[in-house]
Amino acid sequence: MTNIETMRTTNKPPKYPKHRESWRQYAERRGVSTRTLDRWVAAGILPEPDRINGRKYIDPKIEPRADAI
User: Fold this and answer.
1) Domain range enclosing 50
2) Is 4 within the bounds of a domain?
3) 6-42 residue pLDDT tens
4) What whole-number distance in Å separates Cα of residue 26 and Cα of residue 45?
5) Which of 25, 39, 49, 50 is deepest in the core (most CB within 10 A)?
6) Quick check: 69 pLDDT over 60?
């Protein structure tokens, strides 16, 4: 088996999950500012966002905790 065939058959998971939304898009969809999202993270309403190349990303399926808003 050549090196190329081995690379094709390895089942490595993707480096980053596909379902990610930028911090700004998530804020716009929620109708709040990005600063509000930062405050929600500090208060524990949202989980910490993923940082990729210095930019914040979050799974669009994550909902803010309703009992804390």
Assistant:
1) 16-69
2) no
3) 556 667 666 665 689 999 999 999 999 999 999 999 9
4) 14
5) 49
6) no
